[in-house]
Amino acid sequence: TFTMEIVKYAFLPVFAEIIYAVPLAIFNNATDPYIFQLVQYSAAVLFLLLVYGFAQKATKHTFLPIVTVLAVLSIMDFQREILHGGYIDVLMFTTAFASMFVLLEAVSRGKIEKGNLFVSALLLGFAISMKYLALFFVGFNALLLVYFYVHTRANIKIAIMSALKYFSIPALVAGFLYFRNLLVFGDPVYPML
User: Fold this and answer.
1) CA distances (Å), origin 179, targets 8, 123, 193
2) Most Cβ neighbours (<10 Å): which of 37, 132, 181, 182?
């Protein structure tokens, strides 16, 4: 059963809580270590591997990918989120950064394939369905797309259609949460605005 405290936060994106709650319910896990902590720590490892893989492709020096991972580990907020063992931020950041890295790699190659756009957009949708904080990555990815289309001198109509297709995927994945808030509270990111 849920407490009244949960009802107070019913307006928040809930995808990560669902990821945490399903294993708890399946395994009837009511004591430490919680299954969701294992999920979170696994996501942290995947995130660090993602950072390492991206840095390895983006740098010529063999020591820089390791330094990049160490730099991420040295960020105090990241350490706090990991060590707390219950925040959804780790899953959100993993999917949001993965979305940005897929797009950034494609942009740096000078060619964006439809598969890359789809994967990036899907990951972005998962991220924004977890936390409002992921909306910053919508802006980052939009800037990457604008840079790509300006840099490649793409036809404006093709660029707009491609961007609309790209952002329709996260809207389909997470839009219902924001649309519900708009209908119920008059603010898609309630209580932020």
Assistant:
1) 18, 19, 14
2) 181
* Range list of β-strands (E), the chain: none
Residues 60-87 have a mean pLDDT of: 74
**Per residue in 132-154, pLDDT tens?**
888 999 999 999 999 999 999 98
Burial 136-153 (b: 16+ CB within 10 A, else e): ebbebbeebbeebbeeee
192 CB neighbour count, 10 Å cutoff: 10
Q: Measured between alpha carbons, how far is 159 from 163 in angstroms, rounded to an integer?
A: 6
**Is pTM beyond 0.90 here?**
no
**Which is more confident, 182 or 29?**
182
In the DSSP assignment, the letter for residue 154 is -
Are 183 and 22 within 8 A, CB to CB?
A: no
Closest listed residue to residue 162, CA positions, set 144, 189, 180: 144
Residue 1 has pLDDT above 50, yes or no: no
* Residue showing tokens 């407490």: 3
